[in-house]
Amino acid sequence: MERIPILQMGEFLLVTIQVDMHDRLAMTLQDDLTNRITQISARGVLIDISALEIVDSFIGRILGNIAKMSRILDAETVVVGMQPAVAITLVELGLSLTGISTALNVEKGMARLRASLAASSTESANGQTEV
Question: Could you tell me which InterPro entries the record lists for this protein (predicted)?
Fold first, then answer.
């Protein structure tokens, strides 16, 4: 069975999608990723979609679901490398990708995850918790 590799980088997971996404592969990625988040107590997920030229409504919904599930499991999600045509398609389909932060590239995405982790650590130190 085809799988997308999920790499661990400290407290973060890195997913680089280098193949065309079909529905079954997207569902497998969703399951694999949520399992890995819980296995290593990941605090962030970075998904690189720079190789994707097409994102249909189903794949867009899966990305949104991944972000929601990750958030429930106490991990932030950042999608990086979105091609302009993909962004246009998502807007035309009416998919807002709620809960997903975006960045232009992996470097900026990792910086966003680190900043988010630092902010949540500060909130925890001050006795504030999210609900």
Answer: Bact_StressResp_Reg (IPR051932), STAS_dom (IPR002645), STAS_dom_sf (IPR036513)
For the chain, what is the radius of gyration of the CA atoms?
Answer: 14
Looking at the chain, list the stretches that DSSP marks H as alpha helix, in order from N- to C-terminal side: 23-40, 57-72, 84-93, 106-125
Strand partners, 77: 45
Task: Give the tokens for residue 37.
Answer: 């988040």
Name the residue among 115, 99, 129 with its Cα closest to residue 43. 115
Instruction: Output the pTM of the full model.
Output: 0.89
Average pLDDT score over the chain: 90
In this predicted model, what pLDDT tens digit does every residue of 6-55 receive, in sequence order?
Answer: 999 999 999 999 998 899 999 999 999 999 999 999 999 999 999 998 88
Token couple for 52: 């994707």
Containing domain of residue 38, as a range?
6-125
Structure-token pair, residue 5: 């590799």
Query: Domain tally for the chain?
Result: 1
In a domain, 1, yes or no: no
Question: pLDDT above 90 covers what percent of the chain?
Answer: 67
